[in-house]
Amino acid sequence: MKTQFADKIINKLSSFSVKMFLLIVVCVVLPLSAASIYVEKSMKSVLQSKISDRILQNLSRSEPEIVKTLQNMAVLSNTFALDEELLARMQDKSYTEYENVQYFNQIVDKMIITSTDALADSANIIIFDQFGRVYSNWSLNYRDYAYLLEEEWVKEAQKAKGHMSWSMFSPVYAGEADSQKKNYVSLARAVLKQGTTGAPIGTMILSIEQSSFSNLLRSYTGPEDEAFVCIRDGEMLFSANKQNLISQEQLKEVYRQVKDKAFGNKKQKLGEEEYLISYYTIPQPWLFDNEPMKVFIFTNYKEVHNDIKTLTDRMQAVILASVLLVVVLAAVSVKMLVRPIGLLTEKMKEYTIDQEITGIDIERKDEIGHLNRAFIRMSGNIRNLFAKLDKESREKEQYRYESMRAQLNPHFLFNTLTSIRWMALIRGADNIVDSIDALASVLKYSLSYNNEEVTLKDELENIRSFIYIHNLRYQERCVLEILVSEEMEDLKMMKFILQPIVENSIIHGMDKTKKELNIRVYGYTEDDILLLFVEDDGIGITKEAMEKFSSAEHRGRMTGIGLKNVDACIRMTYGEQYGLTIESMKTGGTCVTYRLPVRRGGSENEKDHDCG
What we know:
Layout: H1 2-13, H2 16-60, H3 62-81, H4 84-91, H5 97-114, H6 119-122, E1 124-129, E2 134-136, H7 152-158, E3 165-169, E4 184-192, E5 200-209, H8 210-219, E6 226-231, E7 235-240, H9 248-258, E8 263-270, E9 273-288, E10 291-300, H10 301-350, H11 367-406, H12 408-427, H13 430-447, E11 454-455, H14 456-473, E12 478-483, H15 486-489, E13 492-493, H16 499-509, E14 517-526, E15 529-536, H17 543-550, H18 563-574, E16 579-584, E17 590-597
Helix pairs in contact: 2-10, 3-8, 10-11, 12-13, 13-14
């Protein structure tokens, strides 16, 4: 039972329709499915990149604001570094610190009143002059802030001849308690004697709270995004870390990974969450501690994933519908294609020669129609071929019957001539003996009807005997010339195919106006073809006789021994490419050409050669 079931499955799988369906699935459905997977992955990558680009574009809008804020800090520092009276006071030791602070506060009040930037009101400013006096817009609370002058970034500014140095720090600053410590973005610059030139006469530090920059970042990021500006291996300069989801250590790890890249995006898992991290670098000259600022935006990938999933789900639905449509169309197409082929196959299985083919559409214009018409033509060709084989078989049997019947009289004549020959020998009539020997040779050669081939030499000897007998009757009027090499004489051929043509030349070609009839036999081999020629210089053959011989009709009439009979027998034995051709020569007479296969040695590929 299992074997029968397995056989059915194998037969079903081996059917043409299943193969066509599987071919379509393999060549269309599978590539389409693979393409959909590739497109989905590519789409995810593209969408991820697009979302990151959008985030960076939004965030890049904050860059001018950040730069503007830094520029405003630099402008505010110029208010003090370029004030001539303040510079004079800083160089005059006679002024007390209190007097200088009073004047310093006047500058601050004037700056706040005249400036349209809110930064002027929130900036923390402290100046150390060369005599150790300290001026500040916030209460010093009797604390010594001289330690600020020992910061590396401040020392660098003191050497920079008025150029600014930026940094971020969070000391106990501006009178804050430890619980209220804040981070500050600060610039330091040397105060020069002539404002922009001269020797340093003091050091200025101007700071604003980091939250001012963080607010700028928040205004350009999404509600769920975390934004950071970092320097020095991920050290956070300022941030919009709204939910405190990203730790300093995680930020440093990400910074190390992209430190040498100007901008880009990456997907990374931090803790339990997965983030799309977008980053770009704020270009110079805004350096903090000689390090460029790098901006990071952490977007929870769940949000990105949901957006991508919505799009990819729609795309997959469209692709799935397309795949199903292709499968259905493939099944319908295969059925439409296989049904007429199956019908044609059944007709071929049931076909017999006598059956008339019906039930197939021969009017179709497609390949199926070509197959149906080809089957109809093939059926007709098979019937014609069988009819031709049947006809040739009947003709050959008829010729065999006629040949065997023709042997009866030569047998009796041969026996009678043998008796006469002995009588002539007894009486010494030598010429009669020669005549009887020649005739007996011809009769004996014609009586040996069997399936063996003879040599060309045997055929030529038979012709010589035949001509000798005729010359007894016609007083040596037939002259026979044979031009055949000894090598050719050993070639095998059908028996009794030369004598009928020579006899035909004598009977029909004899010209009574001439004293003799010349018959010449010659030949050669070419590309495994034996070409023999029998020429005479008789009266020639008429055009009507040649046309009649060349027509296909003569091959159907086997009622006599002659040209038609010999040609038909050669064609039936060796094939249609062999046979006789006949032509009338320009010089008078007739030439019959034999086209035969070159056969040497034994009787390979023998057929019945009972032709005479």
